[in-house]
Write a structure and sequence with these properties.
2 domains, mainly alpha, 2 strands
């Protein structure tokens, strides 16, 4: 059996909406701010990212901005359009279908490997991630269907904890990037919560199957979970 991987690998890379970790460079801070604005749709798909405008928007220098944008190209959120220019990556139903297909391919293998090689440390981390997710309200109060930021953070941690013992940091990073691109589609399509689905029950079933090391059942439930969300996104994008 493979040595059990470090469960935190790949999960700590992202920065939340509320601030930056201590000691981050200006480029890292700009990366986080740009990423948040693109993910939330404040920088809309296809928009040309003019350095002079971004300098004023973020009160930053041209060099760290270009460095942050160049780094963001690898995440698929920004595209380079000429030697020095950038734009926000566009969106389409075809692109989303490819995103979802690739995500399912990678996470099926990652989850199977994680279940096969995950030991006590992985199980404990998964239990904690699911517990934290189950304790968070998905939406705001008073009928507000927008997703709660704390729930979103716990949701990411749960899904990444499922595959954290797969033994491949590269695969985890790819899955993390695809997660971001998926969330961007949700924000752009205007979808919020899914009132006709019991998301908590779906997560609980995936969790229980993974914890019981029932790979076939866990994978089937996870893929059905993603496909149901994908159908919701497609309908919203088509109606936009």
């Amino acid at each position: 059996m493979l040595n059990e991987p470090k469960i935190s690998a790949g999960i700590e890379r992202r920065t939340g909406l509320s601030g930056f970790r201590e000691g981050e460079s200006q480029t890292a801070q700009l990366f986080a701010r740009l990423r948040d604005d693109i993910m939330a749709g404040r920088l809309e798909p296809g928009r040309k990212l003019k350095i002079d405008e971004l300098r004023k928007r973020y009160d930053a220098g041209a060099s760290p901005l270009r460095e942050a944008l160049s780094t963001m190209c690898s995440d698929g959120l920004v595209e380079r359009i000429d030697q020095r220019g950038f734009r926000v990556a566009d969106v389409s139903i075809d692109d989303f279908n490819e995103l979802l297909k690739t995500r399912c391919w990678l996470e099926e293998r990652a989850l199977r490997e994680s279940i096969a090689h995950g030991g006590t440390e992985w199980e404990e981390a998964l239990v904690l991630a699911h517990h934290r997710l189950s304790r968070q309200a998905r939406t705001g109060h008073g009928g507000d269907l927008r997703l709660n930021d704390d729930w979103e953070a716990a949701h990411r941690d749960f899904h990444m904890s499922l595959i954290a013992a797969c033994g491949s940091g590269i695969m985890i990073r790819f899955c993390d990037q695809l997660y971001d691109r998926n969330i961007r589609y949700r924000n752009i399509s205007g979808t919020a919560a899914y009132p006709k689905r019991d998301i908590d029950a779906e997560h609980r079933q995936i969790f229980e199957a993974a914890l019981n090391h029932d790979a076939d059942n866990a994978v089937g439930l996870l893929m059905a979970h993603y496909e149901a969300t994908g159908d919701y996104f497609r309908d919203a994008l088509a109606a936009a």
